Amino acid sequence: MPDIFVSPSSPASVPLSPTAFGIPTALSTLVPPGSGGMLSAFHFMPQGVHFETQESGEVIILLLRRHWITNVPWIVLSILLLIIPILILPFISQGGELIVAIPQTFITLLIFVWYLLTFSYFYSHFLLWYFTVSIVTNERIVDIDYINILNKKFAATRISRVEDVTMRARGFLSAFFHYGDVEVQTAGTEPNFLFDSVPAPDRVVRIVNFLLGKQEEEEET
């Protein structure tokens, strides 16, 4: 899988601050507690992060992934796949009534292949979660969707093309863990953008609306 996020090649790394780009410090209070790490689903003004089509002077304001709770199904399944050989191995080695005697070499090979496939299943799902991101910069909305390990879809639009931003929460889990969908409607024939199951969708909407208002003020002046 090609790298999406790489450190910028600038000779000196200057810490980013919201006020340096016209973003009020009060906006930082919209960031959910505990967010900001590279494995976080809500990352506000990430340091040392760069995506492949980033323009000169373009700064990442938000880097969003699906909420971690959406990973529970495949994580639980991965754990079950790890446990299954441990549960059935005693029956195979002792020659249970329903299982005929199997050579030890074949059992060892079968277990190795099983764990290799389990690791591949876990790792591929983790990569799809990690690299499928929605990015909000001071200039654009960027959506990077990985359909599978080798197939991705990239879409982007200017902040000035955004017409409306709305959020939608679905069900009990969405309300309890405070995540939901954010839909960005664009002008003309450009496709709409959907931030799927992102944390704190209300805060995402407020930040995007602020950037939209700031863009409109700059166009008027």
List the SSEs and their pairings.
Blueprint: E1 42-44, E2 60-64, H1 72-93, H2 104-131, E3 133-137, E4 140-148, E5 151-158, E6 162-168, H3 171-176, E7 179-186, E8 193-199, H4 201-220
Antiparallel strand pairs: 1-2, 2-3, 3-4, 4-5, 6-7, 7-8
Helix pairs in contact: 1-2
> Any idea what the CATH architecture of the largest domain is?
Roll
Distance between the termini: 44 Å
Strand content: 15-25%
Strand order across the largest sheet: 1-2-3-4-5
What is the CATH topology classification name of the largest domain? PH-domain like
SSE ordering: EEHHEEEEHEEH
Tell me the name of the CATH class of the largest domain.
Answer: Mainly Beta
Give the number of DSSP strands: 8
- Mean pLDDT over all positions: 80
Largest sheet: 5 strands, antiparallel
SS-derived structural category:
alpha+beta
Rg result = 23 Å
Regions with little confidence, pLDDT below 50 for 5+ residues? 7-15
| Count of spatially separate domains | 2
Number of helices: 4
What brief labels describe this structure?
221 residues, alpha+beta, PH-domain like, 2 domains, 34% helix, 24% strand
Write a compact overview of the structure shown:
This protein is α+β, with helices and mostly antiparallel strands and 221 residues long. The chain is built from four helices and eight strands.
Describe what this molecule looks like in 3D.
The chain has a five-stranded antiparallel β-sheet with strand order 1-2-3-4-5. It has a three-stranded antiparallel β-sheet with strand order 6-7-8. The radius of gyration is 23 Å and the shape is elongated. By secondary structure, it is of the alpha+beta class. It contains four helices and eight strands, in the order E-E-H-H-E-E-E-E-H-E-E-H. It has two domains: 18-66 and 132-220, PH-domain like (Roll), CATH 2.30.29; 71-126. It has helices at residues 72-93, 104-131, 171-176, 201-220, and strands at residues 42-44, 60-64, 133-137, 140-148, 151-158, 162-168, 179-186, 193-199.
